[in-house]
Every structure is written in structure tokens, then in C-alpha cells.
């Protein structure tokens, strides 16, 4: 797993952040213990001897293995910086607790806040509140409905959904010839990744007259919900050719349901995340046909928070992490790269 962190850190591409009013500018550091403010309102501090930057991270849940890895890589990055004191709070899959956690960071005057929202509407207000108090906020993975925060780091979920759509079309016969029933299991539909993974996928497959997409139920990113949804689908739909789930655990849960029904051999299962010990392993075992890499953004998010604190601006206002397909043809190379 250690190799996983080192490999994915080189997989970044940066783009412009479209909703900022104006780019950040450099500003001089203040006196020890004082804060200077850049034109974007971000604090730039020269630390007193022995003082560390207080950086708070609000994680929406650790009930998903991808988020456990997310936290692990973030903490590993923080350990590289002697001037960082990182506090991690788990919202336990509850929006109200996540809002309270972020407000606690604001109340205690943390230098920067990282947040991976459970869902966009519920976290928008508190992200705006922190930003308006001059605390730089780095939003990770899932976006909010407010563009004034300091930096976003995450995958391009529209592109990941489109990549999965292109794979599905090829698997079902190719562009213009594809035929089959696709069953879709969505992630938490109040979150932007689920919405974008759905929209990107449909942008591709809806062009194919021979493909019918069914399902679209909210599996909340959970394996057991993927299993339950698929059990019901198998009872109601006599033929399913491909399952597209918005993450690997739900895809694997769907595979388990199909195995229980004796139908797994006739269905292709496609997921997203590409954790080596999950999606990568399940592709290797032949349970998933493909997974698409979704790199955890925590380590890069911390680096950008430090850049803002030290210079007043991130490397870019929006940083997008690349994806790649992991299939039976590529999984051995992928696992070798990841140190598995």
C-alpha cells in the first residue's frame, strides 16, 4: 500500500477554476504571530517558534474503504511536515455532524480547513462561512454550491462516468452496434460525484439505440445496499447484460447477488475507485470486468492548503486528478505499479 501513495501523487493535472472572482496574489508574510491577508482574504502567517499550522480535516464518513485510504494518505502526507498539526474529524455519514465539525474548526481559529462533503447543499453554508472569516477552505472530492472557497482537489467525475460509458458501449458490441440491458446503481445522489458519474455515463450510452439503462437507485456507496438493490433487480429483470455501479463496493455487492442467483457468468460488472485490494483484486479475480481509478485527494489537498498559508494562493484554483481503466488486460501491470 505504501507504493500506492507514491505512484498516485504524480498523477495530477491542473486546470483553471472557473468561479473565482479574481486570481490570488502573493502577499508578504506578517510578523510572528500576526496575519497578513492576501487579496482573496487568505491568511498568510509566519509561525512563532514552536507553533504549527492548525489544519482541520472534516471527512464525511469512514464507512467506505476508499475513504479509509483517503485518510491514511492524508495523514501520511501530514507526517512529512514538521510544522503541521492535523486534526481529523469523522462526520459518521451525517451532514449535521459534519457542519458542526467544520464550525468547531472555525470557532477555534484553525489556519486552514479541508472538507470532503457528504452532500453539496448541506455543506455549502458552512464552507462559505469559513471562507468569509478569512480561513482558506480546500474542498476535496465532492463539491459544494459555492465557488468562493480557496481550492478544489478531486477527480473529474464526468470524465470517469464517460470513460465507463465508453467501456460499456464497447463491451456490448461497439458504437452504433451496441445492444443490451444495463443496470445502474448510483452513489449518494445528493453528492456531486454520483450526479456527475451518472451524467457522464448517460452522455455516452444514451446515444446507443440498442442500449437500455434501468435502475438508477441510490446505493449510498455501500456494498450491502448494492447487494440488496441487485437482488431486487434480478427478481424483476430476466436479462441484464452489464451492471454499472458508481463505486467498486456496490459493483461487488451486485456481483455477490448475481452469484447467489447463479447469474454472475452472464453479466459484466463495472465499478469505480480502483483500490488495489478491492477493485483491483476483484478485476484480477474475474468478478469485475473493469474498474476506473479514482485517486484519493487528501495528500494533494494538504499540500495546497500549505501553499495557500505560506504564499496566499494554491497552485491552481481547481486541481483535477487523472483516471485510468483497470481491466483483465491491464490489471497485472496496475497491481505491480501499486506494489501489490
Give the arrangement of secondary structure elements.
Blueprint: H1 2-8, E1 12-15, E2 35-37, E3 43-45, E4 53-59, H2 65-78, E5 84-90, H3 95-107, E6 112-116, H4 120-132, E7 137-140, E8 151-155, H5 157-171, E9 180-186, H6 192-205, E10 211-218, H7 223-236, E11 242-245, H8 248-260, E12 268-273, H9 276-284, E13 290-293, H10 298-311, E14 318-321, E15 325-327, H11 331-337
Parallel strand pairs: 4-5, 4-6, 6-7, 7-8, 8-14, 9-10, 9-11, 11-12, 12-13
Antiparallel strand pairs: 1-14, 2-3, 13-15
What does this structure look like?
With 340 residues, this protein is an alpha/beta fold. The protein is built from 11 helices and 15 strands. It has helices at residues 2-8, 65-78, 95-107, 120-132, 157-171, 192-205, 223-236, 248-260, 276-284, 298-311, 331-337; strands at residues 12-15, 35-37, 43-45, 53-59, 84-90, 112-116, 137-140, 151-155, 180-186, 211-218, 242-245, 268-273, 290-293, 318-321, 325-327. The longest helix is centred in the middle third of the chain and has 15 residues, at 157-171.
Amino acid at each position: 500500500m505504501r507504493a500506492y501513495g507514491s505512484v498516485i501523487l504524480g498523477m495530477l493535472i491542473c486546470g483553471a477554476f472557473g468561479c473565482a472572482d479574481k486570481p490570488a496574489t502573493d502577499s508578504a508574510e506578517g510578523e510572528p504571530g500576526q496575519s497578513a491577508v492576501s487579496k482573496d482574504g487568505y491568511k498568510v502567517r509566519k509561525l512563532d517558534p514552536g507553533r504549527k499550522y492548525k489544519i482541520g480535516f472534516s471527512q464525511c464518513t469512514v464507512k467506505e474503504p476508499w475513504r479509509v485510504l483517503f485518510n491514511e494518505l492524508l495523514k501520511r502526507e501530514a507526517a512529512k511536515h514538521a510544522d503541521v498539526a492535523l486534526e481529523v474529524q469523522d462526520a459518521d455519514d451525517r451532514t449535521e455532524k459534519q457542519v458542526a465539525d467544520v464550525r468547531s474548526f472555525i470557532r477555534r481559529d484553525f489556519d486552514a480547513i479541508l472538507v470532503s462533503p457528504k452532500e453539496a447543499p448541506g455543506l455549502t453554508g458552512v464552507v462559505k462561512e469559513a471562507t468569509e472569516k478569512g480561513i482558506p477552505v480546500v474542498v476535496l472530492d465532492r463539491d459544494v454550491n459555492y465557488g468562493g472557497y480557496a481550492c478544489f482537489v478531486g477527480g473529474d467525475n464526468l470524465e470517469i462516468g464517460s470513460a465507463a460509458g465508453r467501456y460499456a458501449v464497447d463491451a456490448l458490441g461497439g458504437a452504433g452496434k451496441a445492444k443490451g440491458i444495463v443496470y445502474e446503481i448510483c452513489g449518494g445522489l445528493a453528492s456531486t460525484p454520483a450526479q456527475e458519474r451518472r451524467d457522464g455515463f448517460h452522455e455516452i450510452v444514451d446515444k446507443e439505440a440498442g442500449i437500455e439503462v434501468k435502475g438508477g437507485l441510490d446505493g449510498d456507496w455501500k456494498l450491502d445496499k448494492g447487494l440488496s438493490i441487485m437482488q431486487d433487480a434480478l427478481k424483476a429483470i430476466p436479462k441484464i447484460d452489464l451492471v454499472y455501479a458508481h463505486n467498486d463496493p456496490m459493483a461487488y455487492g451486485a456481483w455477490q447477488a448475481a452469484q447467489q442467483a447463479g447469474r454472475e457468468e452472464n453479466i459484466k460488472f463495472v465499478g469505480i475507485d480502483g483500490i488495489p485490494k478491492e477493485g483491483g483484486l476483484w478485476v484480477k479475480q474475474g468478478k469485475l470486468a473493469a474498474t476506473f481509478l479514482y485517486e484519493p485527494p487528501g495528500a494533494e489537498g494538504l499540500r495546497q492548503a500549505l501553499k495557500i498559508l505560506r504564499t496566499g494562493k494554491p497552485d491552481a484554483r481547481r486541481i483535477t486528478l487523472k483516471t485510468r481503466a483497470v481491466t483483465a488486460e491491464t490489471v497485472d501491470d496496475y497491481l505491480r505499479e501499486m506494489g501489490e
